[in-house]
Design goal:
The structure holds 2 protein chains of 2 kinds. Chain A is of the alpha+beta class. Chain A is about 55% helix and about 5% strand. Chain B has a 4-stranded mixed β-sheet, with helices on one face. The chains are: A alpha+beta, B alpha+beta.
């Protein structure tokens, strides 16, 4: 592979933010080199490419780095114009997608992270909040699937699908590690069926972190979380 | 069909003002509806049921919420005077910095103003880290957008104006010229731009608004 159009992704195997970029690159059929980072011992290159946040993912295209997963997704969409589109064409539909992606990223994720890091009463409260937000999301998504059930036979998945499956694709591992249901088919049937359908799409299935390894990591992080 | 553009906003909200700047830059005619945030109107609640916040743009009746999402929508819908750069890499940089401002800078600066006195030193330090990062990004550019204001400059309106008002009211030093000469120069250029100047709340009114907040906070302790 020549140096022009060289794409390198700096990531970490369990990071949902990295998964987003991997899935997007796979859907678009973009060849890339993957570099696994040890987050306890970050490489000089990573620190140089993302001095502001020092985090993964970082996409490097022709030597130029881009950080922040949602920013990277938009960059991928705008740069590789052939192949499937991740965002809708219509500006209003795009705005709706960006709005909900922001909701998942800022509101939902925040509650889930608080829940994962806390215990006892604080944990209960954070989970309750997370479920409420999931319900808001479930309600908001009804308009996106007029037939009721999400299906992806054509494997055309988009921005919001990617954001969702990157976070909740490994939900079984998350549920095992935390000992509770996060995506409950009774409470949130649409989100449940959506995530389940997405996990069957090859680009997503291939990117799912190994179950046992994921359970072990989450349990390790919980045990060692600062209180 | 005649185009109908309405903006539901609040006079003192930097997020609301961002949208006004973008609409004015593009010469879009719109109806402005100011909202009392202590008594939210049915229109606001119906237009943004998820967050119940301003700003909300209504374009031919269709609502869009979240100021940065609205800015992108405006840029894609009305093509005059682009807010985002053309090249995908430059667009990615603009989105990165706007996100940084919204997710890191604004919370840090806001916290530095409103936290308890005992936490203030640390909070100001965190605010300074953000300001320093922006200072380094600006370097020798006139604006974050280059020669003219763009996406990031609009997102930074809180830093350009609100921070100054808050500094006076709560008595904290954040955007000082000795530490941040480049950012201060940017601020002066920024508030000098006509499209910005005409879309700022009155310093007195905003100061008074924050002062009542300081007073009610000290009373509840």
């Amino acid at each position: 592979m020549g140096e022009e159009n060289k794409v390198t992704l700096y990531g970490m195997w369990a990071s949902p933010f990295v998964k987003r970029v991997e899935i997007a690159l796979k859907i678009k059929g973009i060849p890339y080199e993957y570099v696994e980072e040890d987050l306890k011992n970050k490489s000089q290159l990573l620190l140089q490419y993302n001095p502001v946040h020092k985090k993964v993912p970082v996409l490097v295209h022709n030597g130029k780095p881009i950080a922040e997963s949602l920013v990277i997704l938009e960059y991928i969409e705008e740069t590789w114009k052939n192949g499937p589109k991740i965002l809708p064409e219509d500006p209003y539909e795009r705005a709706k997608v960006r709005f909900w992606a922001s909701f998942i990223q800022q509101q939902l994720l925040d509650s889930l992270v608080s829940a994962a890091k806390s215990s006892g009463e604080a944990h209960e409260k954070a989970m309750k909040e997370a479920f409420e937000k999931l319900t808001v999301f479930e309600e908001g998504m009804k308009g996106f699937f007029p037939s009721g059930t999400p299906h992806f036979e054509d494997e055309n998945i988009g921005f919001l699908d990617i954001v969702l499956c990157s976070l909740f694709g490994p939900h079984k591992a998350q549920e095992e590690a935390h000992g509770l249901k996060i995506i409950d088919p009774e409470r949130h049937p649409l989100v449940y069926s959506w995530v389940t359908a997405l996990n069957e799409v090859p680009a997503v299935k291939e990117s799912l972190p190994p179950h046992d390894k994921m359970v072990a990591l989450i349990q390790f992080l919980r045990r060692n979380a600062p209180h | 069909m005649a185009e109908e553009v309405k903006l539901i906003g609040m006079w003192g909200s930097p997020f609301s003002r961002r949208v006004e700047i973008a609409l004015k830059l593009k010469g879009v005619q719109y109806e402005y509806i100011d909202v009392d945030l202590t008594n939210k109107s049915p229109l606001l609640l119906k237009s943004n049921p998820v967050h119940k916040k301003v700003p909300v743009l209504l374009h031919n009746g269709k609502p869009i919420a979240e100021s940065l999402v609205i800015l992108e929508y405006i840029d894609e819908t009305w093509k005059a005077n682009p807010i985002l750069p053309q090249h995908p890499y430059d667009r990615a940089m603009a989105r990165f910095w706007a996100k940084y401002i919204d997710e890191k800078c604004l919370p840090a600066l806001w916290n530095a103003c409103w936290c308890e006195k005992k936490d203030r030193e640390k909070a100001v330090e965190e605010g300074n880290v953000c300001l320093k990062t922006l200072e380094n990004e600006l370097k020798d550019k006139k604006f974050f957008g280059g020669e003219s204001i763009g996406f990031v400059d609009i997102a930074a309106n809180f830093i350009g104006f609100w921070v100054g008002v808050l500094e006076d009211v709560v008595g904290v030093e954040l955007l000082t010229i000795d530490k941040f000469p480049i950012l201060c120069k940017w601020r002066d250029e920024y508030v000098g731009c006509s499209v910005i100047k005409e879309n700022l709340p009155s310093k007195e009114k905003l100061g008074a608004y924050f002062r009542t907040r300081v007073e009610s906070a000290s009373q509840s302790k």
